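B., you asked whether I could sanity-check this one before it goes into the benchmark set. Here's the sequence:
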Amino acid sequence: MGESLYIIIAGLVGLGIGAVVVGMFLKGNNKKIEADAKEKAKIILREAEMNAESLKKDRILEAKEKYLKLKSEFEEEANKKKAIIITNENKLKQKEQVLSKELEQIKRKEAELDSKKENLSAQMHSVQVKKDELDRVTSQRIADLEKIANLTKEEAREQLVEMLKDEANTKASSHIKDILDQAKLSATKQAKKIVLDTIQRTATEHAIENCVSVFNIESDDIKGKIIGREGRNIRALEAATGVEIVVDDTPEAIIISGFDPVRREVARLSLHRLVQDGRIHPARIEEVVAKTEKNIEEEIVEIGERTCIELGIHGLHPELIRMVGRMRFRSSYGQNLLQHSKEVAKLCATMAAEMGLNAKMAKRAGLLHDIGKVYPEEAELPHAILGMELAKKYKEHPEVCNAIGAHHDEIEMTSMISPIVQASDAISGSRPGARREIMDSYIKRLKDLEDLALSFDGVNKCFAMQAGRELRVLVDADNVSDQTASQLSFDISQKIEKEMQYPGQIKITVIREMRSVSYAK
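And here's what the prediction gave me:
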């Protein structure tokens, strides 16, 4: 036990001694490491100071080089600008010298002009003096001549003018007659050639009257049924439809005459139904006509709606749609009004699209531009103004209303769509084959031809002959001589060429007849 305790104490003492030794060793080692670290720190610090000094010198050198380079570039740029300034100054000096020379020349020319002006003033004064002297001498001579001739200057001038006028008219009439005679000799061959070329290149339709429709029948036996006993059936049909039924010797055809195309269509369809049914008597006629009128009204509305859908026009008032449908049964100068309006609408849309305008509005105005022609009531207004009023009534756009009213220049155009509608209407109506003259316009043209000739002095009577190809003018023999008759014929032909439009040529024949009348008592 004691030994063990001794051993333990000895061990503890040994451990203490070892710890002291180790602590002394570590303390000496730490001092050495600290000394080494300080030495290394000094070395690193010296190296850093050397590197910093070297880097500083390098930066200073780089800065000096950059400064020298910038200085060189600046001096070079400054030299270039200085050279440009010197060059511009030299040019300005040269221009100043040139301008100085030109100014001297201008001053010299001004001096010359002043001198010429003075000379001209002197010459004008001399001319004025001579003119005054000449006027005085002329006045004196005129006064002497007036004393000798017993005429004033004005009277002598008038007599001379009249003499020269008569002589000029005589020579002109003779010259015109010679030219016309020469033209007639060479015109026959050229006229034949022109006529042949025209016939070969032109195909025209036979002229028909637009106020009649033809109802075809299978046999002439049906005519008796349509006429009825003592004509009661045909009278009932005329009273119900408002048209005239012409039953003549024309084989297998009955003529329906009337100015209203809707009435003619009602009569034609009613006849068709009556002939198919076979029962033809006044009561049946009235019943069929009533049904046909109802069907026609429905068909008119359907045609109007189908036209609007075809053209892509929406929001049209129902009454305007009905009027569009009525165009199907209306013609203008032989041209179907609905086809004409559709054609104008398409032309308007194309033109407006090319000009960057509202194509839909232009198309709408083109379709409605002749809506006044199918107004069911008789009106005194022109169809363009009436159509404009209808469009306003049914709330159409103001530009559409203006285009309708202005397409015949009844009112002033206020939008770009208006001249487009006018031009499209002219294109559609004037293209070859679109229209033909009807009886009213034909008669009016002949009447205008006669009135034109009657407007000349000395004309007593005038007759348009050969469908307007010849104009016979009867003149007063006391007021028109043989010589002036030739001049009158030429003057009438010239006025017709300037003021009228006509196909082919018109022959003007002036007839001067001398009559002496006495009475034996």
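One thing to flag: Confidence is low (pLDDT under 50) at residues 194-209. Otherwise nothing jumped out at me.
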